[in-house]
Amino acid sequence: ETQWIASNILRIKTKNPFEAGELYRLQHSYYEYGCVSMLSNTHLTLRNFNIYSCSGHAFTVSGTQKYWHFDNVNIVRPPNSERRAITTTADHLHIAQSQGYMKMENCEFSLGADDCINMHDCSIIMDRESDETLLSVNARNSYLYNEGEEIELRQDDFSPAGFTGKVIEKTLVDKERKIYRVRLDKPIPEMKGVYFVLFSKKYDTRNMIVRNCYFHDNRARGILILARDVTIENCKFRHNEMGAIKIETGYTFDVWSEGYGVDNVVIRNNTFDTSNPLDVENAGRARDIVMSVYMKTDPSLEQTTYPILKDILVESNTMRDTFGLIAFIASTGNVTFLNNTFINETPRNKPLEYRGEFFVTHSKRTRIVNNTWVKSPHVKTPGVIYDKETVKGLIVKGN
Question: How far is 261 from 208, CA to CA, in rounded Å?
């Protein structure tokens, strides 16, 4: 709630008190409008393309978009405008769903009010009504189960339900709540939990290459990876307010449900500098890189022992001024941190005792090998914290 008192005085009612001497960036819109909408294109290249200012997402990708290329596409302040505090009011690049095959090279995304890149597909939770029918739980993403669509069902811990089938009938049963009955072409297995999670077989954001790019000074994350076959290399991440990279899949009962799992990701030869200055936490710990799920709510403390996030290599990166954990690793299988260098030269006003550490839980085959911590008085106990009950096959050596 806001009220203008004078031309240079704004009254803001907030639970978080303002502090004299701090810098604040105010925006008057968020998701509204948008600049470039890319819907079901194929073989599309944007080259030497600048966006200086935009309300909403700078780029929105949806539908069956496939084979597209960003080359020297920049979201930056216009020249000679150092006082300009913001570029986009939402994500720089928001991939709601696609069929994959994106290449991004030589780009700079900066000063936006949300994630630099959010790559995902949408899912939805469904209730089992009978051996042949499902009921939707909320009104979101109903396009995923239109007649003729092929779908996969997962248990609510993301483990496979052993079912892939086709929608043969879709009927509205509650007009006010927009609840549908969905009839499938074969018998539906039993649910082991509260709901099924429905994945679409039509959409598949995968084969994503991001190379030689610079992501900096944005609210939220540098890159959200909810996709498969992803390579992030030779990029620079600086001052991403809520962390540099987030690898996840999740569902909620009443808002968004995103991601079909993560598989085959390489993060190589990048530089990370002063990530997560806001100290955004997972399970009470701030972190630069997070691999995790959310279940029922977002965020949530629940994790799964099923490795829905797997085959991830983080290799030969340089990470400067990690003010909390280097990485929070959960709900994973076969994760490797290899030959990375961690440099922590800058003191903090609020030192964290776990600075420069890893935290591992609900994980199989995590390897933290041959990494280098440059000695620093600001990192008291470099190493790995792990949960003995849920972590299997952890290897820490050669560091």
Answer: 15
